[in-house]
Write the C-alpha cells for this entry.
Amino acid sequence: MPKSLISIQDFTKEEILHVLDVAEEMEHNKSQTFLSDKVVACIFFEPSTRTRLSFETAANRLGARVIGFSDAANTSIRKGESLKDTIKMVSNYVDLIVMRHPLEGSARYASEVASVPVINAGDGANQHPTQTLLDLYTIRQTQGRLDHININMVGDLKYGRTVHSLLQAMSHFSPEFEFTAPDELKLPQEYRDFMDSKGIPYKETSDLREYLDATDILYMTRIQQERFTDPVEYEKVKNVYSLNASMLQGVRPNMKILHPLPRLQEISTDVDDTPFAWYFKQAENGMYVRMAIISYLLGKR
Amino acid sequence: MEKNDGQQLKVSAIKDGTVLDHIPSSQVFKVIDILGLSGSEHPVTFGVNLDSKSMGRKGIIKISERFFRDDELNKIALIAPNASVNIIRNFRVAEKKVLAIPETVSGMVKCINPMCVTNHEDIPTKFKTIVKGSEIQLLCHYCEKITDL
C-alpha cells in the first residue's frame, strides 16, 4: 500500500518537520515542473472552496495536471456506485488522489482500496490533516520555532476537528495551551486525557479576555452550525466570542491570530489591518504545504 | 474448581468438546452468536441463571465434538472476560484455556457513529481494543470514534 496522509498521526515528528521544510522551499520557489508527468485527481464529494482550490493550485504549480469533480451530484455516485468502485476506477487513472467526503473514515477506507497515495482533504467531522500541517507551518513561520509555544484555542473546542488535530500534532513540541470555550463547547474528555498522558499543561476559561495577553498564538475557530443537531443550542452560542481591534492593546508583540476560515463574526474586520492578523497568510501557506505533501507522497521530495 | 456437583448436572456432561463456563447469564446468547453456534451441527446445550458461588448467577455452554481456535475463543473475552474454557476429552478436563482480550476486533461489532463509513458502505468493521480498568472500549479503525461494549 503506498504511503497516504489520512490522519495527522500517520506522520511522525520527523515527517512533519520534513514536510514543513519542503513547504518553505515551495514558498521560495512557487512554480516548479518536476511533476509534469503526473496526474492528480481532486475528488470532492462535499463542497469546499479553499481546500479544493489550494490543492488544485498546488498540483498545477508543480506541473501536474488535475482531473476531478467538486460535487458528487453529477457523477456515477448518483447511480448508486459504491465508494470502493469509484476509488478503484480513479486510482487506475491517476498518480495521486485528493479526496473530501462527508462520511467519517471514508478516506482511510479509500487509501486501503486505492493503488496510489490518498490525501484526506476532510472526512466529515473526523480528520483534516493538511489543515493541521499548514497550521504548524504558520506557527513556525510566525514564531521562528515550534517548541514551547503558548496557544490559546478559542470557540468550538468540542466539534472542531482542526482543534483536535492541532493539539495532537503540537504534542511533539512541548506546548502550553489555554482553551477558551463556552460550557456547551468545551474540549472533550478524551483530549484532556491525551494531554494529561503527555504531561502537557493547559488552562480553561469561558472568557476570551482572560488569557489574551499571555499567548503566542490565538487560534480562533468558527462555531459550526452544521455540527449542531439542536438549533436552539446553536443560537445560544453562535455569537459568544467576537474579537475586535480594541481588545488587542495589551497582547504580546509576537502574537498572531490564526483561523482556519471561513470566519463569521468571531473576528471583526477591524482586526484584519492589525499586525496580529495572520489568517489570510495562513490560508496562502496552505498551498505551499499542499505542494510539499503532494511532492513527498509521490516520492519527489 | 470444575467439580461435577449438582449445578453441573443441570446441563448434562459431554464426552468430548468444549465447555464455556462462568459466562454472565445476559451474555450467553451473544456468545452463541459470536461462535456461530446457531447453525451448529454438533449437539449444543446451554443454561442460564444457574447458581454460582463466585458469580451468584451464571451461564454455561457445552458444545460436543467441537474445538475452537484461540482467536475464535478470544472474541468471547470482549463480552465475558471472566469466562472459563475447558477442553473435554473422554469426560475429563483435558485443558483449561485463559481468554485473552484480542488487540483488534473485526466484523462482529457495529460502529456507533452513524456517520462512520462502515455504516454506509459494505465494509467489515475493524476496531482496536482499549482496556480502561474493567471496561473495554473499541476504537474504530476508520472513523476513529470509540464504541463502548
DSSP finds three helices and nine strands in chain B. The CA atoms of residues 65 and 107 of chain B lie 26 Å apart.
